[in-house]
Amino acid sequence: MAKGHRSQIKRERNDVKDTRPSAKLSYARMSVQKACFVLDAIRGKDVDTALAIVMYNPRYASSVIEKLLKSAIANAENNNGLDRKDLVVAECYANKGPTMKRIRPRAQGRAYRIEKRMSHLTIVLDQKN
């Protein structure tokens, strides 16, 4: 059981904020599985290599992730004052978002459901050690 008043516990929990530069994209119109193919390829790489990977990747998700990665780099340079050469992709992940349900008419009066999935993408950068 935690000790202290509830507001003190919340204050202590909020004090440990992640100060690493990051970028988020919510409600991206792609499934988590398809986004993870590209995210797995850039995880742990330095930002120039990661940009080169997503620029020449033929998947649709790579164009969206390229824009998100450029945003994270700009956040690191402008907000945190970090040098671009020292940045690596520390974390990148895709979380499941809401699913739009659509109906496709089929033969003999039946209907098939089409699920248009969405995902929330996050890229967190860090300095090289």
TrEMBL record:
InterPro entries: Ribosomal_uL22 (IPR001063), Ribosomal_uL22_bac/chlpt-type (IPR005727), Ribosomal_uL22_bac/org-type (IPR047867), Ribosomal_uL22_CS (IPR018260), Ribosomal_uL22_sf (IPR036394). Part of the 50S ribosomal subunit. GO terms for molecular function: rRNA binding; structural constituent of ribosome. It comes from the Bacteria. Pfam families: Ribosomal_L22. Keywords: Ribonucleoprotein, Ribosomal protein, RNA-binding, rRNA-binding. One of its GO terms (biological process) is translation. The gene is rplV. This is Large ribosomal subunit protein uL22. This protein binds specifically to 23S rRNA; its binding is stimulated by other ribosomal proteins, e.g., L4, L17, and L20. It is important during the early stages of 50S assembly. It makes multiple contacts with different domains of the 23S rRNA in the assembled 50S subunit and ribosome. This protein binds specifically to 23S rRNA; its binding is stimulated by other ribosomal proteins, e.g. L4, L17, and L20. It is important during the early stages of 50S assembly. It makes multiple contacts with different domains of the 23S rRNA in the assembled 50S subunit and ribosome. Residues 1-21 are annotated as: Disordered. The keyword Phosphoprotein does not apply. GO terms for cellular component: cytosolic large ribosomal subunit. Belongs to the universal ribosomal protein uL22 family. CDD domains: Ribosomal_L22 (cd00336). Residues 9-21 have a biased composition (Basic and acidic residues). The lineage of its organism: Bacteria, Bacillati, Bacillota, Clostridia, Lachnospirales.
